[in-house]
Amino acid sequence: MFSRDKWNEVIESLSSNLFRTVLTAFGVFWGIFILVILLAAGNGLENGVKNIFSGISSNSMFMWSQTASKPYKGLPKGRRYNFDLDDVTSIKQKVNGLKYVSPRNQLGGFGGDNNVVRGLKNGAFNVYGDYPDIQNQEPMKILQGRFINQNDIENKRKVAVIGEGVLSELYEIDENPLGTYVKIQGVNFMVIGVYKKRGFGGGNAEEDQKQIYTPFTAFSQAFNYGERVGWMAITAKDSYSVTNLKEQIFDVIKTNHKIHPEDDRAIGNFDLYEQFSKIQGLFIALNAVAYFVGILILLSGVIGISNIMLIVVKERTNEIGVRRALGATPWSIRGQVLFESVFLTLIAGMAGIAFATGILVIINFVLPEGGDIPFANPSVDLPTVIIALLILIIAGLLAGFIPAQNAIKVKPVDALRTE
């Protein structure tokens, strides 16, 4: 219930020594400011990483064959083997919960020989033999033309989708590549599309644009790969975890190629879902650190407010004695001290939140939109603000508890004698 007298008393008490009150409140202001900024920075880092990897199917793994490290069923240790299309069929049939199983073959690459020629220009590029599903597993934007489709696979069409980096190296500026031919290790492929990938930063960002995609069947026929599969990109359905399905996939490969069931070194893999889970755990840890550091700094401010309230109670001992003599209950005395403590804490904390919000608005205004830096839209959501306010209220109550207890311990007779 609103009481003008109570509010006047609070304002008069806190403004009697305004400079002291401001200095004391600054500890809470700074603590909540640091808490909000740290949480916003953690969210900004998480948003930036998610933006960079947007479009990629994170519930995926990549798998390739290695050397068998154990003898099995008369076959020697150290033997080499290759995946084939029968493995792809077996995995699709025997492992429930998979969304895409994309076999791939690959030629060339950065640092290798020039394997692609067009006219008088040539270059060393990664050339992939793929199925259309690979477009759903890698972030890619088609700038011109189209991507490979099922008809290309069935008819073994020698067509290619090139990256922006390939376009800039093999073609003149503003030259239309669609319908032209590039020669890959002596075999002509017609260009049907141009793609652009989101860069992931680091040394591979430029190389991601220097790749060529061809139909798996045409690639195998042109370069004599037959049924062989170099490696696979496997994606699980949303309700499944590819990490949990991984062992079932390995068991299928081991059975098909007579590999020892305990030979874990015979199959190489990179579990993208597992890596994303670790990154997600890192963000949770960063938020925990933010709360820990912010609350510690806030605690120092609470201690300052508790000290100032002890001084205020000491200065108002005579007043408290008069109020007790006139019939004020211990709860009314305690409530007044706690109310003043919570009020001061909330005012300082809200000022800290407002200042932090202003800083975040400026940062968001300065940050470039759509960049590849792993930091974007640093902000805090409404539940976080509500949690901060609850922390402030609890902090205010803690700050005023000891001074309030001291206030009600004062005997009216002793308080009236105080000068």
From TrEMBL:
The chain crosses the membrane at residues 21-41, 288-313, 342-367, 382-402. GO terms for cellular component: plasma membrane. Belongs to the ABC-4 integral membrane protein family. Its main location: membrane. This is Putative ABC transport system permease protein. Keywords: Cell membrane, Membrane, Transmembrane, Transmembrane helix. It comes from Psychroflexus salarius. InterPro entries: ABC3_permease_C (IPR003838), MacB_PCD (IPR025857), Macrolide_Exporter_MacB (IPR050250). GO terms for molecular function: transmembrane transporter activity.
